[in-house]
Amino acid sequence: MPRPAAALLRAITACTGCREAQALHSLACKLGLASDMVISTALLTSYAKRGLVARAQRLFDEMPRRDVVAINAMLAALGAAGRVTDARALFGRMLDRTPASWNTMVTCYCRAGDLTSARDVFESSLRAMSSSVVSWNAMIDGYCKAGRMDAARELFDRMGSSLPDVITWNTMMAGYLRGGDPASAIAMFHLLMRTQQEGEQRLRPTSGTMATVVAACAQVGDLALGRQIHHLIQQKGIWIDTVLSNALMDMYFKSGSVDCALDVFRTIPCSPNLFCWNTVISGLGMNGRGEDAIAAFHDMVQGRGRPNGNSVRPDGVTFVALLSACSHSGLVRVARKFFSQMLPVYGLPPQSEHYGCMVDLLCRAGHVDEAARLVQTMPGRPNAKVLGSLLLDAHVAEGQEGGVRLSEWAARRISKLDLHDGAAYGLSNVYASLQRWDRVEEHRRQVRAAVRHAKGPRRKRPGRALL
DNA sequence: GTAGGGTTAG
């Protein structure tokens, strides 16, 4: 490939924005490289990654010739956009399919939640002798993400001992973790280490393996194992990327080892990204270090805190972390300021979880009336999250009759929401803790009645008010 | 140039 084409290709694969992709596209045209199949395929993928399927499609349609890689790229673009029917049609027209074509279809169906079709395509790929370990991994991941760990495990076991690669193991571990079974994720990690020691050199754990098992340690609260794994990571010289850094920091923060967490933060190999900052801010907050959390926030937006650090734009999660940090440390005035700056300064309209944080914070500080005003003036109808905060926190303002009244107002509003939300069932307990036994019975009757109503033949659409 | 996994809040 001539030098300008190679340079252009590198730029296309590395580019990050829509306008950048468009600029590189027109550059390719001016250089007379637009008809180059490799360049066009890279551009197609670049558009697809930014969610610009229509542009990707046009590029594809205008290609004078299309090889199997170009078609596979288009197939993936359609799949990522959820256009299952179009993907299937294109796949059906393909004369020679590579394993990547089959795998793309499996992933496409899995993402659309159609596991039956995914399984059909997967089995066909086995029959067509066009499968690879990637097909198995894609299918297993589909089951994992659908919460069907039994089916995932069955496939994993069917693979035998030589076919699974480290990604297969990572997928299974992550599946267990996401499915709320961190103990099984840890068990698989031990099994992986044993298998590797028995001579499977392909099964060297990656930073992804370590991130998952560390997250599992954090969930079961096994700091001892977590530390051991941290040592193992250093001993094996596994590269601690931002993902693994986050998992380690999170584990240390959750176990109260703030200094260890900050040590990890200081040694992140590149400039910390949004995820890293969010982890640090929430971690400091949950350890009662509200002032430090706020300082971290300022470092984040100003690009300080690290030599040659970049400025990072906060997102909604950042503000949940920041506001709850304020809440844990009783920093009411600062929280009000940040909350009011969200839209005008940072361009982030407060969501219900942010209102929830503010309600939580105001109630804890005894500003029950202000919390009530906030909920009553928030745009849209307050949902179970916000009302739940109000319900659970308003009576914390002890001895305040207003608090109890507000709690009850929230309870009534919740009972008008969809009861399948689960929040309504928690109500009885709150009443009980308020020692209002008369209301407990009354509420339980309401819940029973509403559930009967919900199960009845005239079931309304879920998510709508029942009363 | 195309196909698979991993981290963050409450």
- The CATH architecture of the domain at 165-269 can be named as Alpha Horseshoe
Q: How are helices and strands ordered from N to C? A: HHHHHHHHHHHHHHHHHHHHHHHHHH
How many strands appear in the DSSP assignment?
0
Overall mean confidence score, pLDDT: 86
Instruction: Please report the distance between the alpha carbons of the first and last residues.
Output: 69 Å
Low-confidence stretches: 421-425, 432-437, 450-467
Summarize the biggest pleated sheet. none
User: Within the CATH hierarchy, at the fold level, what is the topology of the domain at 165-269?
Assistant: Serine Threonine Protein Phosphatase 5, Tetratricopeptide repeat
* CATH level-4 homologous superfamily of the domain at 165-269: Tetratricopeptide repeat domain
Based on Cα principal axes, name the global outline: globular
Radius of gyration: 27 Å
- The first-level CATH class of the domain at 165-269 is given as Mainly Alpha
Q: Briefly note the structural class of the backbone.
A: mainly alpha
Helix count?
26
PPR repeats: 36-70, 98-128, 132-162, 165-195, 273-307, 315-350
Keywords: Repeat, Transit peptide
Pfam families: PPR (PF01535), PPR_1 (PF12854)
GO molecular function, one term: RNA binding
